[in-house]
Design goal:
Layout lengths: L2 E4 L2 E4 L6 H7 L23 E7 L6 E3 L4 E2 L10 E3 L3 H15 L16 H8 L16 E3 L4 E4 L8 H8 L6 E4 L6 E4 L12 H5 L5 E3 L12 E6 L8 E7 L2 E7 L12 H4 L15 E4 L2 E4 L2 H16 L7 E5 L5 H14 L4 E4 L9 E2 L5 E2 L7 H11 L3 E3 H7 L5 E5 L9 H7 L4 E6 L11 E4 L8 E4 L5 E4 L12 H8 L8 H8 L21
Parallel strand pairs: 1-6, 17-18, 17-22, 18-21, 22-23, 23-24
Antiparallel strand pairs: 1-2, 3-4, 3-5, 3-6, 7-8, 8-11, 9-10, 12-13, 13-14, 15-16, 15-24, 19-20, 25-26
Helix pairs in contact: 7-12, 8-9, 8-12, 8-13
Length: about 525
Amino acid sequence: MPTITIDGKKIECRDGIPVLRAALEANYEVPHYCYHPGLSVVASCRLCLMEMKVKDAKSGEMSWSPRLVPSCQTPVADGLEVRFASPGVEQNQKHVMEYYLLNHPLDCPVCDKAGECYLQDYTEDFGPAASRMVEEKHKNPKKDIGPHTLLYQDRCVLCTRCVRFCQEVAGSGELAVVERGSRGEIDVFPGEPLANKLQGNVVDICPVGCLLDKDFLFKQRVWELRSSKSVCPGCSRGCTIEIDHHDGAVKRLRPRYNEKVNEWWMCDEGRFGWKYVHSDQRLDAPLMRQDGKLAPTQWETLAGEIRARMSAATGPDSGAGVAIVLSPMMSCEEAWLLTKSMRSIASQATLVAGFAPVAGSNESFKNGFRISAEKCPNRRGVQRVIEAAGGPSCTFDEFISRAGKFRAAYVVGGYPNAWVSDAAAAAIGQIGTLIVHDLFKSRIWDSAAVVIPGAAWAEREGSFVNEDGLVQSFERAIKPLDGVKFDGQFLFELAGESGLYRAAKVRQMMSGAMPEFAKPFEPRVEPAYSH
């Protein structure tokens, strides 16, 4: 690892990165707009300029160059010495910031980016807080550039991050800089709206309030948000994300850096696919069939009732007529707890890898980002639990073809969309004792002896295993819907455990048979290249 000197302090840094990135990773605050590590370097914003020691052509001695150089464009090299804390650098920062503010509107009170805006922060930390501009500001238009995105051009600093993203990552190239000089502005090509499957990322990487998410517009002040680390459940790729929430409600999802999966990005399908969490169609109370009708029951007696019903259905064959359908929407911990509890009652119960929805084909983008066709987060995690448990198991299709042979089944859903086909409903309807654990009413509702309302992924904690076999943990962001006990806690009690469910505690219990769960993968912490 090369060692460089910044402002008189030696730091070790990763090879091949620019000085700006090394400084940010070492917790130096260096202003920058145009630089982003996932995009090409253009060195256009001129805010990250630094002084650098160079060899004098005549004397051969190292001395400070009179010319400032862009730190984003200068690669680290062993022995390199630079400085940001100098009068020349500070004067440049003030001048550049003043130019950016010449035509910028003073609309921070109504701007969605307020509170996480680079221009606000840099004005306070590096630039003049007051403008000498007395002439009328040049006003650029506001534009609707796509189904999800607005462009407020009067706030733009022409960093071109969005343009480079569409060209270099999404590969669609809808955005461009039109006109030149003071008239330059971002726009879409005629008849080509910003509608690629990764377009939401341009809002994330915009350092000011120029590009705005229509879904989030005027919905919440960002300083009131709390963020929880999570994993996107939209497909088996397993992008790591942040859930921003307030007052028990999800407000937006943002990508979280992960060098092994999604780097700095996420797709629109995952970004906007969380609305079902707050659907008014969700189940909000446990139900038990009495006198032919499903009626509300108490959580306090539910676990005991389920154990009793499954015991009664076990029979002399040690539960060979019992099936446990483990949904790929479950966390690994939940699948393990349910397996543990049911196998303690019916040792020969058949473990079923639940229905894994597939839509289209896998999609790859220019930078290697992928969207999986498999629209569930944890098929491999469930299969790993089934493999570790041993004993009878089968696929979902095999379960449907043999459903009439089972006396009892515990079926877990948890899908955001309808998932039970007519054929599956008819087959499952033949099972005598059917316990359904799901988010929404489905076609097997009429056959169920017990219905357990599930919690959405944002209301739970646990881990998923992605398509590459990577174990990744996620936190609970919000409380479950009123009347719902989150799945981990209920299954913890069903398995005969006492106290509060904690995913980390259960993973340690699992790690004896599955060592990979002892320590889930944690992505490297990256500096904030955008808020």
